[in-house]
Batch of 3 targets.
Target 1
Amino acid sequence: MTAADEQPVVLRLSGIVKTFPGVRALDGVELEVRAGEVHCLLGQNGAGKSTLIKVLAGVHRPDAGSMLWQGEEVSFASPQAATKAGIATIYQELDLVDDLTVAENVFLGHEQSTGGFVRRTQMRREAQAVLDRLGHGDLRVKRVVGRLPTAAKQVVSMARALSHEARLIIMDEPSAVLAHDEVANLFRVVRELTSRGIAVVYISHRLEEIREIGDRVTVLKDGRTSAVNLPARTTSTKDLVNRMTGRTIEYVFPERTKRVSSDVAPLLEVTGLSLHGEFADVSLTVRPGEIVGIAGLGGSGRSELLETIYGARASDAGQVRLNGSTLPPGRISTAVRSGLGLAPEERKSQALLLDDRIYRNITLATFSRYASGGLTRASDEQAAARRMADALALNPSGVMAPVKTLSGGNQQKVVLGRWLLDPSQPADGVVSRNRRRASSGTRLLLLDEPTRGVDVGARADLYRVIRKLADDGLGVLMVSSEVPEVLGLSDRVLVMREGRLLREAAAQDLDEATVLDLVMAGSLLEGEQL
Amino acid sequence: MTGLTDAALNKQGAAPQDGPGSRLSLRRWFQDDASEPVRRNLGLVAVLLVLYAIGAWSRADIFLHPDRLWTNELTVLTLASSVGVVAIGMTFVIISGGIDLSVGALLALASVWSSTVATQQYGVGVMVFTALLVGALTGLVNGVLIAYGRLAPFIATLAMMVAARGLAQKISGKTTQVVKEEGITNIAQNKLLGIPWLVLIFAAVAGLAWVLLNRTTFGRRTAAIGGNAEAAWLAGINVRRTQVLIYVLSGLCCGIAAVMVTAQANAGSSDHGNLYELQAIAAAIIGGTVLTGGRGTIVGSVLGVLVFTSITNLFIVNNLTIEYQLIAQGVIIVAAVLIQQLRVGTLRRRSSS
């Protein structure tokens, strides 16, 4: 790593400009990447990171600026051209074909063949060799990719990049879909790549990762480079965050203003809940005004637990009681009517109608309650959505735009807002004539990874919103793989591992190391089994 | 009262900050994703005008003569009416992310069942009711198979397409069942204020469908399911029940169309509605309904049917044979989609500079 400065520059971008209708996504971006380095790209959502990646990958062509690749001026006409030149991109949504085997995926698009016949054995052998080089020789090349865990899929993507003889690999938030122990593994692979002189452009929202793996950092802000080539290890967090935001933001968690007495009757009571193969015998309670956080790795059964409470999965045993009444297993509509709301893990695929207008996304769960006699009332919905947008400081606050135009943080606010609408409240003084189901409104919110893919500035904002909701009497049950988030935001913390709740304590009585210890012990055990 | 409320809603909906009222937002309207269907429909109107111009050029004696033009256009509309009704049901299905290949066969079955000797003796009312009921029930079978049996819509309706056509042949014994009830034939012959009933039925179905899609909770659910079924489900929408209702609606439209076709032919036949599924799907696609679901408009589908029928009409008045019509229809489907993509593309590119 010390040699990084002496390594030749493989990629140099200067003055890259890319505009879309109404947006100047990139406005003069500089980037310099040396062979064998891990160059981190840092920036808030909307800073232009994704656009920059797509320019590098040949998806977008820049409107202006120059791109020097291994000393030559280039302009990629297509993603294939970029791949051919030696630039491989590993997107968050991995572009693998689930039905094909590992070997077939590695050589997808450049199958080795003689006279039109695919040379399977040779491809398998070479795929195996590439995997060996990545330190994942244990991954069997005949396995179908769809059955592999996400971490293994990522390795397959990287093997594909290697098989293309890539000299530069761009990784878009690779750790976002990984559990804690898997990230360590990812870093091992990244180091393996750089030791061979391959350059890596690494995008992540997690500063601690950048410290661990990165060599240099380029910071993007509003489509411009606000800092280039900062040393990744020695630049202070404050400095980095400052350059990203223009104002100092830390992981500030809102204060716990109220204390929920343990005498208060619980809003949600889960007793002995089990789902075969996912979790067993889970009991927990959430009181009104309380934020309960579940810490656990991916695969610990935490998301499945939330989904089962919500009725998206039918439990095998146990009981869910909300406000004293038992919810039937596997019935979302009943759960929603009784006052449960879910902000799912995969915002885009599980929560939003991306092409549809913002207000229609906000009212997705409640439009029938605004309706009278089956006829929807667009003006009531818009007025309510607009007030909700104001209350949540949704930027930009117009509610008629398609929801896909919003950043991740704002999209999450749309999902939260969906559950906070109260259709029984008159909109703009017009009393809704129809209240055939007396709406109780949402009493308890289930949040699955509420800040995934949300930038630092917007996170603090979301934390404030969630705390405010609890202060207003809502119960919150939250799941997160980021331990500081669970500890910082929750009143009470439950630690989950391998489908069981291990520990329950007030957030103040736990520290990060203790929780990590509990959470990771399980993953170590898992590692031994393999 | 409904109409009044709707008008009021529209006014409020076009709030100053979002509406296309000001000059600035007029430009935005041309780039806004949400207003894209309107732009596309205006494009289809332009296509209809071009077709008219071709008519005026090739058969000036018809197209530049007010009376004959009126008669000819009524012919076009009448021709479009039964496929149009089927296409409207199809639009709901496609917006929800599904497909209904069985519409032509359902139409035939409803037509045959409602015109058997046994049914005919109960009179017009029962015949119409039978057609609608047969359509709705077969649609229900489609819906239940798809929503609860988890069959792919393509498979379920393909099976229904074959089976329903077979049942229609079985019931009719492959013979044409002449309708002796004047009430039925009147539907094809009567006019109101100079406009054939068939055209009025088409207009009424289209109007009701527009309200259903754009102003009711059912329409919202349909679009939500097609836009993102999982998100709709997790938001508490009863996806399966909605799916069943959508296929029932499609079947009901086939029942209505069956009455119209039976009236026009003065007979029920297991050959009715042949290739209607393709025409209805084509009309919806020309009208801008996206096959992957989530987006589509009733106005677009109506215009799509009209474009299709106008072309047929042009060929007929110019004495060209059916082979050319079919070729032209194939070309127009591809052309419509290509032009839409091109147009949207150029707009985007222009606005980016």
Target 2
Amino acid sequence: MTNNGEGRAGNGAPLRAIDWTMTAITAPSAHEVSRTAVAVSPVAVGMAGAVAGVSAMPADWRDFFALTKPKVMRLVVFTGLCGLLAAPGSIHPVIGFTAILCIALAAGGAGALNMWWEADIDAKMKRTMRRPLPTGAMRREDARDFGLLLCGVAVMMMGLAVHWLAAGVLAFSIFFYAVIYTMWLKPRTPQNIVIGGAAGAFPPLIGWIAVTGEITAMPLLLFAIIFIWTPPHFWALALWVKIDYAEAGIPMMPVAAGEVSTRRQILAYSLLLLPLSAAPWFIGGTGAIYGVAALALSAVFLALAVPVGLRRAGEGDAMKPEKRLFAWSILYLFALFGALVIDNWVLA
Amino acid sequence: MTPQEEEEFKRRRKARNLVFVAVLLGFVVLFYAITIVRMSD
């Protein structure tokens, strides 16, 4: 059974009821008897882990590592590091390393909390069903405690070793991702990705604050770039895995508003990204190296978004333009922030 | 628990303990370095 929001638990109940009605006609298997025992007996609930398939083995350390979403963490660490390296001023390498470690730990902790909360949804989607909680490699409570521990260590260490403003923004970003996005908005609105994108936009802002100790226009622009980049990046993916989201009951844009609307919005955000990505150059925050690179990278982004925005996918479509846009969007962010750091070094 | 399962149980526990020790040692070194840097500020 889930400890998630009532809505999701409620949605699954009628289906389970039908399932039980069907199985009552035939002789129940030993496994079904065990499940019934767990459902009706408070004593058996304590054993639910074993019955529901949670391994009696202690979880492997790799399972804990998988909870931190290492692939997402890579991008988070990279953008955080770029914010730190592009900021004016200097930071001692040890303190700089600590700041990035704290950003990584917080991202990992928030990822673990996300997996704890969404274990039942993950189990329904092909992309996520092999995660440690859906496979029963560990108990949900362990994932929750591990996430809270990582987040707590990250915020305290950031405050004590680096800067309390950076620690405050870090704590808010964890709250934003784990509570506002994962628990509140994701299951409720198709705008979830737009708002959730803000959570992923925090790392360069935090990296910058770690150096300067203040929030200025430049780090806010870096925040805005990732914020605007997220919807076309994620919806390009959501367009070809939308059946998964529909089955899991997540109101992702292609499911909730339809494919046509999603494609138009991908195009609109990509159009907006072009001037926004070059804005740090326009306000004099960077040199021409970044400015020209940003315009070129965003122009390619837009060129790839146009076919995605204007076409309609038929039955059995390979979704190549969408996959191409998704792949480019990841490369785009690495290249854009790489250009920012190179520009800063050359100017210095 | 079969002998194989017990073997796997011990292997996992040992691996977790080793990773835990490595992480703890990492933090000890890091906190030492942070303290030295902060004191010289």
Target 3
Amino acid sequence: MKLGNREVKDFSTPYIIAEIGANHNGEMDLAIKMIDAAKSCGCDAVKFQSWSPDSLVAKEEYDANQQYNDSPKKHFGSLKEMVTKYYLRPEQHRELKRCCDKIGIEFCSTPFCKDEADLLEELGVNFYKIASMDVNNIDLLRYVATKRKPIILSTGMSTLAEIENALKTIESVGNHQIILLHCIAIYPPEYEDINLNNIPMLRQTFGYPIGFSDHSIGISIPLASVALGSCVIEKHFTLDKNMPGWDHEVSANSEEMRIIVEESRNIVRALGTYRRIVGKAEQEKKLKFRRSVVAGRDLEKGHILTVEDLAFKRPGSGIQPDEVHYIIGRVLKRDVSCDELLYWEYLY
Amino acid sequence: MNMTVKVGNRKIGNGEDTFIVFELGVCHEQNVELAEHFIEVAYKVGADAVKVEAFQSDELLIDRAIEHEYGTVKGVKRENYYQLCKRLELSYDDYARLKRKADELGILFFSTVHNKRSADFMESIGVCAFKTASPDIINYPLLRYLAGKGLPIFMDTGASFMGEIDRAVVILENAGAKDLIIMHNPSGYPAPPEKTDLRMMPQIKNLFNIPVGLSCHTPGFDMVIASVALEADVIEKPISRNKELESPEHIFSFLDTEAEEFVTRIRTTEISLGNNRRTVVNEKSLPRFIGRRGIYAVKDLKRGDIIREENIVLAKPWRGISVEFIDDVLGKRVRNLVKKHKPINWGDIE
């Protein structure tokens, strides 16, 4: 599976997506600064959300002024005002895409309706992200699938049956370029609700590459997902966790994002082989750390060795403790003083 | 849900012996004596249970004009579905009689049930479990009703997607079911190998952490043996006295005369699976001693001779220094005379 020109595979260096989402707070300067920051952290992509006031929320919900969380600093006005301030206009999409192309980081976004998918297609995105909320939005899934580009599908709030139906929808138009993201759509979730074990389960059940869309606070959980073979990590990104706005509090800042990028590479390197190998460094270490057979007391030439004559001490470069039964009963060719290593040449 | 399910006096799952079920459902030729004979065979060859089908066609089928098709040895056959069901059903009296037979012999007896009435009846005659048919995996009222009874449930999953299985498990769980065994049944008349997906069994077991089994719909014993190797906890297959009868399921049944072989092959396979690690090798066993090699002199080796490849042979049996230490022996000086064709011992070299 390729995302842009990057090969993406389970148990390999994960593809890291800095989810800017609405954290640009509707300000282009901030958005551009965030793209730069994500690039300097080593992220592979920045992601936006292409919703608009008309594509996502019904009038009833605006009228009720639905709040999606209870933290006061996340809201500055009515839902309608926030959506209107935060949404990205088509020309802003174009500008952000140009900016990404210029500094060499992948631009991607989540469409919430067909027009938005068409806009992203016109911008030349290399893949699409579908949000957890749209797992059962069959019509949109099918439409995006017909673009014949990879789809990264978040699976928060979804049962196995819903995930399976979504996959069948995408596959039904002949698109098999799918990456599933395990995801818990709570900001942030309790640790007990994260169920990282779902990553191998989804891989085994559906056979697609599996990534992780993280909404936890901090870096441990996304890094743990890498150990379970996660091929994509999507993490909300901010320049300042204290900024007013929707997701800043649960986002990684630059420092954390850099750690995720660097440590995930180290984790992949450290996973290594299933087969047991004693590496060169350990073989050398063994000569120092293991024990050898030594004389437990001063022994004279001609002495017949017994168990009581012997002790086992470092280094490990002499006769090994598990070879001791080969030397019991043999005769010393020379004197050996207490604590001196025995060698085969000393024995008749 | 329980990882190990108790059915009658038998435990199923989690390392227990494979639970072997002889399916008496539709191959009894509507002959209750023949069904009794099959129960006797099941008991005699050491099967764990027999299973019947409790359907009453008049209660189930609305459209009596519809045609059904099924495979036979002589090809696919079409038949009016109502008439087909009518000629395959037994009466509740017959089922009660078969249950008495099973009780007399001491073999477990259960039934597929299709509605509340058949479930209540089967419960009243004391079945050890219920089974649900594949199409009923989305019959949530029936699943909930059975969950309320408290008996173990064998749930067929033919033609279902993993998501549908998941949904049924959640519904049973929420309705209080504790003892569920998921039966994988590759569907078809008979099921073609490429649509059998035996690997779903270990996957289902991992997903739900409950026992799984195979309802075998393929001629012969290949799928049975493969499923046991994939650690299926239950194997069910129809028994008949004639595979060539033009009636459903005969084509993938086993004969009463093959019953013993059926059971023996399952038992042999499961015992053979053993451990991930060898723990049963006897280090002093004769094959190891005879098959492995020692280092022997090809001519008399005198004190002071250097041991070289030309004056030794690596031969059976293993006596003296084992062949694995050859690198420690080559180049060493002989201390004691080693006669031609005698093994070299550590004490013989410096």
